[in-house]
Amino acid sequence: MGEHATDRATESFVAHRNLLFTVAYEMLGSAADAEDVLQETWLRWAEVDLAQVLDERAYLVRITSRQALNRLRTMSRRKESYVGPWLPEPLLTTPDVAENVELAENLSTALMLVLETLSPTERAVFVLREVFDVSYDEIAAAVEKTPAAVRQIAHRARGHVDARRPRSVVTPSQTRAALDSFQRALETGDPQVLLDILAPEVVLLADGGGVKQAVRRPILGADKVARFVMGGLGKLQQVFSTRPATVNGHPALAWYLDGEFDGMMTLRIEDDRITGLYFVRNPEKLTRVDSEHVLTFR
Questions:
Q1: What's the Cα-to-Cα distance from 259 to each of 45, 117, 236, rounded to whole Å?
Q2: pLDDT tens track, the chain, 298 positions
Q3: Is residue 217 within 8 Å of 204, Cβ to Cβ?
Q4: What per-residue confidence (pLDDT) applies to 110?
Q5: Residue 164: its pLDDT value, please?
Q6: What is the pLDDT of residue 97?
Q7: Where are the alpha helices (DSSP H) in the chain?
Q8: Residue 247: beta bridge partners?
Q9: Which residue, among 187, 240, 239, 197, has the nearest Cα to 222 in the 3D structure?
Q10: CA 20 to 30 Å from 59, out of 74, 137, 261, 281?
Q11: CA-closest candidate to residue 66, choices 50, 89, 91, 44
């Protein structure tokens, strides 16, 4: 490839990098693996004869999707031996993402967990079609299926996800109020403040990856979640503090022990109450978040 073609390839890749990263992250639930996929995509893209490419964006999405699908199949086997619940790697997002309801929902931890119940091919098709509005023909080329087969897979995946995804829109002010109440409950140790903000059906999932201590089964119900959270805080020997953040388009709290970043808890809020608490302590999933300079929700 000549110098001019290399420059053009680089410019095109950089111009679409954010899109490609989001495609890979939505398919994998891992920022680290998404970055690896982008490296693989670039290596393949650099070898392409751009004179033969009609739509560079579509071509790049196709390469990324194929690489992500290959990695997803490997990850699916790896997750079978994962210790405790598997949660997606937290992805810091700006507050404006949270205000874009559709984008925030597509990035949400709750939806990511629903996508985990799909097969790798179903997940790829759903993400490309429902999130990024890629044509059936382009998806077919990416997953190496016929357009007719892709339509059937998309229909099946859409029905599966729609039956399981949370559906409740909350305003930024409601979100802030819920996060403030939750943070106040943690800081004061007042169980009633916590119970007042937890929905009766709330679920808490914790991901320590077998490296950090974390409950290995979901905790269901406001009373049990409140007892677990308050009981855990009461046993701490270190100084505990939190800072608000926006993760995957939703409110979150960064947890610190003696000033050291220890974990990220993302909140799912519906009808002014917290319905989901997703706590990631696995250090391998916190490297990217820990390296960011801004951990702020406001």
A1: 43, 37, 14
A2: 555 567 889 999 999 999 999 999 999 999 999 999 999 999 999 999 988 998 999 999 999 999 999 999 988 888 888 888 999 999 988 766 555 556 667 778 888 999 999 999 999 999 999 989 999 999 999 999 999 999 999 999 999 999 887 766 677 788 889 999 999 999 888 999 999 999 999 999 999 999 998 899 999 999 999 999 999 988 888 888 999 998 888 889 999 999 999 999 999 998 889 999 999 999 999 988 876 644 433 3
A3: no
A4: 86
A5: 83
A6: 54
A7: 3-28, 31-45, 56-79, 95-99, 101-107, 109-115, 120-126, 136-143, 147-162, 172-188, 191-197, 222-235, 287-291
A8: 92, 250
A9: 197
A10: 74
A11: 44
User: Computed over its alpha carbons, how large is the radius of gyration of the chain?
Assistant: 20
List beta partners, residue 260. 257
237: helix, strand or coil: coil
- For residue 111, how far is the Cα from the chain centroid? 8
Distance in angstroms between the alpha carbons of the first and the last residue of the chain: 47
3-class secondary-structure state, position 90: coil
Q: What SS3 state is found at 178?
A: helix
Give the Cα separation of 290 and 263 in Å (integer).
9
d(CA 266, CA 29): 14
Reported residue count of the chain is: 298
Q: Identity (one letter) of the amino acid at 271?
A: D
- Residue 191: what residue type? P
Contact indicator for 198, 222 with CB cutoff of 8 Å: yes
Burial class (CB in 10 A: 0-12, 13-18, 19+), 74: exposed
CA atoms lying within 13 Å on the CB side of residue 27: 37
Instruction: Give the CA angle between residues 248, 250, 252 to the nearest 5°.
Output: 95
Cα angle 53, 27, 253; round to 5: 130
Which has the closest alpha carbon to 29: 95, 94, 113? 113
